[in-house]
Amino acid sequence: MGQGDFENEFNSMQNDLFGGVGILGKMLNSTMKMLEKELQKEMQQSNPKNSTHFELFINGKKINPSKVKVIQKQIKQDSPKKELELEEVEKTLVQYFNKAKQQEFTKLKKTEPSTNVRRLADKVIYELTVPGVKSIDDVSIVPVGESIEVKAIANEKAYFKSIPVHMPVKDFYLQKEKLVLELKG
């Protein structure tokens, strides 16, 4: 027996045992289909489609789902940013000059008042020294962009200060020739 005879004999024995790849493939394919059908049957029996079971827990307490009510609320289409801006404007105190005071302010020589700033836990206090200012009606406090413009009229001069902060004005008053602004911190 030569080397070629051994290879031929092995190939013929392989074909006899397995019947070639075609027969083995068909057998495996039909076995897999049967197994798949059996698995599907078991899953349908163990998990019926119509029965569902769930439990609802809120803060660790079991809630009966039949007692839960669903309420629908209409949501406004306005953007929350617009609402926030409106709230800020409402919370910021503003003081304007009337037309006569505005004209008087434009004619007077302007000086910048000396300023003292203090920060407390929930607010910032600005004290502007404004000698000669007699009434809070002689004061204008207006938020402009990212700052607050403060104008005041004294006897022969006007005071102007731009405070570079973007905080709402909570309160303002005159006290011993000082204009005090309380800003929300």
Please provide a brief summary of the model:
The chain is an alpha+beta fold. The protein has two domains: 3-46; 93-184, Immunoglobulin-like (Sandwich).
How does this model look, in words?
The protein has 2 domains: 3-46; 93-184, Immunoglobulin-like (Sandwich). 35% of the residues lie in helices and 30% in strands. The protein has helices spanning 3-18, 20-46, 80-91, 99-107, and strands at 56-58, 61-63, 109-111, 115-119, 123-129, 139-144, 147-153, 157-163, 169-175, 178-184. A 4-stranded mixed beta sheet has the order 3-8-7-6, covered by helices on one side. Strand 6 and strand 7 (147-153) form a beta hairpin. It is elongated and about 125 Å long.
Describe the global form: elongated
Instruction: Tell how many strands the DSSP assignment holds.
Output: 10
Mean pLDDT: 78
Q: How many structural units, i.e. domains?
A: 2
CATH architecture of the largest domain: Sandwich
> What are the low-pLDDT stretches, counting only 5+ consecutive residues below 50?
86-90
Strand order of the largest sheet: 3-8-7-6
What is the fold named in CATH at topology level of the largest domain? Immunoglobulin-like
Q: Count helical runs.
A: 4
- What does the largest sheet look like? 4 strands, mixed
Write the element-wise H/E pattern from the N-terminal end onward: HHEEHHEEEEEEEE
How much of the sequence lies in strands comes to 25-35%
Structural class: alpha+beta
> Nearest-angstrom radius of gyration?
43 Å
Taking the alpha carbons of the first and last residues, their distance comes to 103 Å
